[in-house]
Amino acid sequence: MTKPTKNRRNKPLIEVTNLSFSYGNKKILSDINFSVEPNTFVAVLGINGTGKSTLIKCLNKINKLTEGEVKINSMSIDDMTINELAKMVAYVPQNVSTSFPIDVYDVILLGRRPYLNWSIGDYDRDIVAKVIQNLRLQDFAFRKFHTLSGGEQQKVVIAKAIVQEPQIYLFDEPTSSLDLFSQYDILGEIKSLVDDKSNPCSAIVAMHDINLASKFADKVLIIHKSKVYCYDAPSIALNIETVSEVYGVDAELLRETKSGSPIINVLRSRKEELQ
Questions:
Q1: Dihedral angle at the C-alpha atoms of 146, 107, 84, 219, nearest 10 degrees?
Q2: Strand order in the sheet with 75-76
Q3: pLDDT tens-digit profile of 10-51?
Q4: Are 58 and 51 in contact (CB under 8 A)?
Q5: Strand 26-36 versus strand 219-224 pairing type
Q6: What is the C-alpha separation between 13 and 129, in angstroms, rounded?
Q7: What residues does each domain of the chain span?
Q8: Residue 208, Cβ neighbours under 10 Å: how many?
Q9: Is 3.90.470.10 the CATH classification of the domain at 1-88+167-233?
Q10: DSSP character for 186?
Q11: Verdict on whether the full-model pTM lies above 0.70
């Protein structure tokens, strides 16, 4: 069985136009506009409660937009069935847990669900085996998912997303509960995915840590007061003035990496200044 073909036009994979979202009368996001090119890691930053996770859920129809439109490969997600959208977009929530005794292999195989009818084909098995090998999950393949550590579970869920063969990966704070090694490991895997020029996919990742975003992201989207405050490369977006304004802290630039990405050190919160 040959691999399904995908549209590989050199234009934005995802286009967000005038997106707004409210919970009842409370507006969370207002007039959000941005687009993401192929092979791009976008880090979504902002203070707690600013709408990072809400935005991620708006991009795959978990949240129904109050206003605006989201297009993937020039097609509105409103015109897609859930199955059609699942072939284009893979969503990885912040926490995935279960006490149900399911093998890691079967968890990963669930990523093929959008393509399956009544049977599992050779291509489905082949891609699962390939991803397990590429992510070095051979030792976990037939262990029960709920027995794994947080970092191991997160890598399995990423493997499930990869076998889904999407063009857009949506990650909602994938490293929030992981140790430092696992944070770098997971973000490195995501970065490797989007850097693969033979596969024009991109990732949109809600994050907290501005220095991890600076290190791994190609672009940074900062949400502040329900709007896009800036959307640019880390070397431009993560300046002292922006960090101070958005996060309410005094900070300093320690140094820049070889790639030009800044490393920010927070000195104090503005509340401390007022005390």
A1: 60
A2: 26-36, 14-23, 67-72, 75-76
A3: 689 999 999 999 988 899 999 999 999 999 999 999 999 899
A4: no
A5: unpaired
A6: 27
A7: 1-88+167-233, 98-165
A8: 15
A9: no
A10: H
A11: yes
